[in-house]
């Protein structure tokens, strides 16, 4: 394979694959159609991309124009993206869960000229706001029966199905073939490849400008750090491609390396799809791994008796075996024999549910609780953690395949600097690079800053906001608090999340919440306590566990009361809150809490599409309940 060079751009990645790695007849994409997985070759992918490019050129889409997406992961996303990238247009993806108002804002802020629409439901959203978006000239549903939605509406933008776009594009392809090749050659690494709008826990979304160089360099150095990824991998994609993590860690990695991408049908069918596709690599988020962990523990111990003892014994052996290996030693013959038995009786059965071929999973988007990472390590399933933001395209650090430090997010990637800056004095406590790595190095915590090839070009049409986060020396200020631990980057929390109690003590919610999330009873914890004398929380129990324990019907979760006032349930939660409080400092412990009937949702505006809580929104929305906890409440200690 030819190496990725400094001049490589996103559309050249796939071209390199068919030139140097695979035949164009090889399978690139897979999707479930009926009961079978349909295989789509590189040839078909590139042919569809060329046809869409021809159509774009026919309707006047030029270099630098923005083309929108509001669609779930699917092959059509890839065709459309490859088509616009190779003529120098800019991918502007929109989370399907956003409100009509937010979608309208993004379309107008970016000036998007086209939008690819994934479902009938989403088309209805677009139709309602399309005439408020003067730059929009084409609405392109991926389905053909769109007229029943559009027939009674007068639209300024034309509506055409993607299949018709491809048909018309193929008819005009001969006329535009040379121009497509010319436009692809004219795309520069410094050109903008994508506008990705921040999910915005506060304020309005900002369009992050990421260049071809941002993406390509990020992929190149990540592959250097994880050299075990090869051309024969099959990735199962389920995290949204509208988010930078999945786009880089799955889509662009596969485009660069020649791996297959199978698109999961939905989150609900993910477990089934894993068994069918048998992926070798997956990108995931900590919450999914936490759920797998909780389910495995529950399943392994539910029967009690001998079965539960065998399960717990196997985990203990797995831990000892892992710790010996991580110390760079070879397990002795007795431990190896015990491990082989544990593998046969317990571990292999859990791995089979993932398809049985996983080399590793890449976890990003938030910090993975240390005990969850260790649990998977004990099973022999490797979890590589990464860290970054949309503004860093996204990876700043990632775990090395051969060197695991649980509770950290890995080694700094090549070619960048990561600094830890004192929040008060603004002096750098430490600046580390890939080459200065020392597995014994540790430092104090501060704000994480980064400088180098991964940093965005800036915020679209927002120079003042750009200047607020990228200083005169080129350092991007992430707003995250962290430190270096055993040479690896370790995340504490977001500066904006930090709670300062009435006595001046700093409380970082994430590690405290993760402590309570060890409880199998608890689904989520939202900590409160800024400028207060003590910590309180809104706790959501795990629905399945709650239903099984108290024999509840689904109707219980449809009741209008936001919070559960059943003393039995409250005391049941309180048992574990008290238990895990012992692992925390007194000023970090939950003193009172409310039990929320249902989880926070994107639709209700409580969390962002990347599942981060909107602190100000939640505190305002539930102000009355919060105030009650500082007058009288459910005491956990």
Strand content: 15-25%
CATH topology of the largest domain: Rossmann fold
How far is the first residue's CA from the last residue's CA? Answer: 61 Å
Task: Please list the strands of the largest sheet in the order they lie side by side.
Answer: 2-1-11-10-12-13-14-15-16
What is the CATH class name of the largest domain?
Alpha Beta
Number of helices: 20
**Residues in helix, %:** 25-40%
Describe the 3D structure.
This protein is of the alpha/beta class and 637 residues long. It folds into 3 domains: 10-187, Rossmann fold; 283-356 and 358-496, Rossmann fold (3-Layer(aba) Sandwich); 498-635, ANL, C-terminal domain (GMP Synthetase, Chain A, domain 3, 2-Layer Sandwich), CATH 3.30.300.30. 38% of the residues lie in helices and 21% in strands. It contains 20 helices and 28 strands. Strands 2-1-11-10-12-13-14-15-16 form a 9-stranded mixed β-sheet, with helices on both faces. An 8-stranded mixed β-sheet has the order 7-6-5-3-4-8-9-20, sandwiched between helices. It has a 5-stranded antiparallel β-sheet with strand order 18-17-19-21-22. Helix 1 runs parallel beside helix 9 and helix 12 crosses helix 14 (370-379). It is globular. The relative contact order is 0.08. The model has no long low-confidence stretch (mean pLDDT 93). Keywords: ATP-binding, Ligase, Nucleotide-binding. GO terms for molecular function: ATP binding; long-chain fatty acid-CoA ligase activity. Residues 31-460 form the AMP-dependent synthetase/ligase domain. This is Long-chain fatty acid--CoA ligase. It holds the Pfam family AMP-binding_C_3.
């Amino acid at each position: 394979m030819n190496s990725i060079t400094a001049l490589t751009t996103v559309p050249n990645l796939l071209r390199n694959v068919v030139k140097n790695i695979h035949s164009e007849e090889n399978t690139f994409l897979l999707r479930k159609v009926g009961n079978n997985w349909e295989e789509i070759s590189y040839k078909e992918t590139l042919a569809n991309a060329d046809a869409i490019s021809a159509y774009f050129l026919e309707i006047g889409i030029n270099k630098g124009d923005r083309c929108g997406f509001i669609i779930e992961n699917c092959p059509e996303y890839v065709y459309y993206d490859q088509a616009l990238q190779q003529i120098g247009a800019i991918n502007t993806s929109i989370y399907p869960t956003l409100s009509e108002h937010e979608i309208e804002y993004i379309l107008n802020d970016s000036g998007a000229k086209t939008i690819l629409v994934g479902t009938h439901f989403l088309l209805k959203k677009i139709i309602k706001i399309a005439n408020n978006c003067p730059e929009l000239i084409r609405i392109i549903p991926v389905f053909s029966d769109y007229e029943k939605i559009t027939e009674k509406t007068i639209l300024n933008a034309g509506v055409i199905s993607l299949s018709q776009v491809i048909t018309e594009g193929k008819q005009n392809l001969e006329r535009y073939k040379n121009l497509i090749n010319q436009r692809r050659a004219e795309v520069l690494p410094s050109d903008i490849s994508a506008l990705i709008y921040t999910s915005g826990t506060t304020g309005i979304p900002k369009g992050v400008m990421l260049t071809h160089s941002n993406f390509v360099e990020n992929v190149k150095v990540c592959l250097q750090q994880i050299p075990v990824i090869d051309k024969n991998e099959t990735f199962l994609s389920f995290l949204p491609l509208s988010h930078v993590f999945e786009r880089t860690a799955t889509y662009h990695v596969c485009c660069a390396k020649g791996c297959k991408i199978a698109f999961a049908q939905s989150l609900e069918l993910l477990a089934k799809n894993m068994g069918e596709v048998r992926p070798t690599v997956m990108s995931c988020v900590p919450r999914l791994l936490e759920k797998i962990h909780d389910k495995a523990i529950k399943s392994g111990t539910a029967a009690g008796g001998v079965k539960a003892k065998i399960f717990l014994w196997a985990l203990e052996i797995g831990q000892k075996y892992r710790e010996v290996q991580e110390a760079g030693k070879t397990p002795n013959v007795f431990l190896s024999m015990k491990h082989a038995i544990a593998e046969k009786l317990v571990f292999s059965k859990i791995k089979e549910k993932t398809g049985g071929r996983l080399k590793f999973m890449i976890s990003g988007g938030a910090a993975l609780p240390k005990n969850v990472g260790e649990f998977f390590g004990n099973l022999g399933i490797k979890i590589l953690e990464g860290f970054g933001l949309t503004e860093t395209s996204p990876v700043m650090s990632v775990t090395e395949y051969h060197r695991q430090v649980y509770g950290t997010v890995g080694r700094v990637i090549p070619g960048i600097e990561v600094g830890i800056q004192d929040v008060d004095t603004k002096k750098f406590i430490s600046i580390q690079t890939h080459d200065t790595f020392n597995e014994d190095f540790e430092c104090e915590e501060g704000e994480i800053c980064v400088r180098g090839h991964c940093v965005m070009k800036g915020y679209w049409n927002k120079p003042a906001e750009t200047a607020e986060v990228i200083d005169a020396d080129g350092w991007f200020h992430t707003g995250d608090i962290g430190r270096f631990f055993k040479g690896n980057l370790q995340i504490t929390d977001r500066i904006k999340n930090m709670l300062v109690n009435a006595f001046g003590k700093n409380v970082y919610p994430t590690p405290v919440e993760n402590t309570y999330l060890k409880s199998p009873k608890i689904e989520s914890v939202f900590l409160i306590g800024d400028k207060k004398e003590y910590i309180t929380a809104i706790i959501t129990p795990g629905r399945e566990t709650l239903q099984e324990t108290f024999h509840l019907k689904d109707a219980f979760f449809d009741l209008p009361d936001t919070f559960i006032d059943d003393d039995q349930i409250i005391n049941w939660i309180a048992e574990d809150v008290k238990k895990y409080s012992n692992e925390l400092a007194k000023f970090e412990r939950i003193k009172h809490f409310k039990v929320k009937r249902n989880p926070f949702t994107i639709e209700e505006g409580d969390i962002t599409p990347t599942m981060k809580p909107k602190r100000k929104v939640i505190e305002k929305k539930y102000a009355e309940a919060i105030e009650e906890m500082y007058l009288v409440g459910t005491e956990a200690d």
